[in-house]
Design brief:
This protein is α+β, with helices and mostly antiparallel strands. The protein is 40% helix and 14% strand.
């Protein structure tokens, strides 16, 4: 009911998409923007600070109400009022009320406040583990996606949850400062969100573009250092979990690497 209203380059929690699709789309955008590597391009990556804990539930519900107001063929047999009632119950449910702790309090020490619903502002925050939260995260930033694509004219743009990139041929630093300002202003005024101050990346694409556990270079893609390290430290029965990722990218050699001799 909602999926057809998302842009193609919104990758998370969607049938036929996901992390591998997102990586392949970034590779496509690199080739397209650089005209098959015949002209230099720059990659700007940004992240939203404490995204799930800062999503305003009232704003989210109003967004969904507007979707219901727009007729769609798939909605003909949907009991709209019941659907709105259930969505309202889901969004405004407070998981911190009368909750049970499965771990002792000391294990929570060191957890950033931006990662916990117990420190969220009133009427803000969704439980990350809920499938509905993952879907609603696409709804919440759907208007933002269209703003970046159509208002800011960023053709080569993609987003996975709160992690997004923009590719451009511009070599003017002022252009990227302008984009960052416009994006931060939209997030703050429309959605009560902020860019993460420490997660900003702007580099020539030959340096590699980190995204979704890999680094995309002009002619190849490799898994990032963190995934390499996790694989090499993993117990034998757990290494299989990484095999699919490594085989999809140019990192096959790591599967036969001796952990005692490998350096990152």
């Amino acid at each position: 009911m909602l999926d057809n209203r998302f842009i193609t380059d919104c990758y998370s929690c969607r049938t036929g998409k996901g992390t591998l699709f997102g990586i392949r789309r970034l590779e496509y955008h690199v080739r397209s923007c650089s005209q098959n590597h015949t002209r230099p391009i720059y990659a700007m990556k940004m992240d939203i600070e404490g995204y799930f804990m800062r999503m305003n539930r009232k704003i989210l519900y109003k967004q969904l109400e507007r979707h219901f107001e727009k007729p769609h063929p798939h909605w003909q047999n949907v009991p709209i009022e019941l659907a709105k009632h259930l969505i309202h119950k889901t969004i405004f449910n407070d998981p911190t009320a009368d909750c049970k702790y499965n771990t002792p309090p000391h294990t929570w020490h060191g957890l950033p406040k931006s990662k916990s619903l117990f420190h969220a502002r009133p009427d803000c925050g969704l439980p990350i583990g809920n499938l509905t939260s993952q879907l609603f995260s696409n709804v919440y930033l759907n208007g933002f996606d269209h703003f970046v694509k159509h208002k800011l004219k960023c053709k080569h743009y993609g987003r996975y949850v709160d992690d997004f990139y923009i590719l451009s041929t511009s070599q003017d630093p002022e252009y990227y400062r302008h984009l960052r300002h416009e994006i931060d202003n939209y997030l703050h005024t429309k959605l009560e969100l902020n860019l993460h101050p420490k997660k900003f990346y702007l580099q020539h694409y030959s340096k590699g573009i980190p995204f979704l556990g890999v680094v995309v270079y002009p002619y190849h893609t490799v898994v990032n250092r963190r995934n390499k390290a996790n694989y090499l430290k993993a117990k034998p029965e757990k290494k299989q979990d990484y095999r699919g990722m490594f085989l999809h990218h140019n990192s096959h050699h790591i599967l036969t690497t001796n952990p005692q001799t490998h350096t990152l």
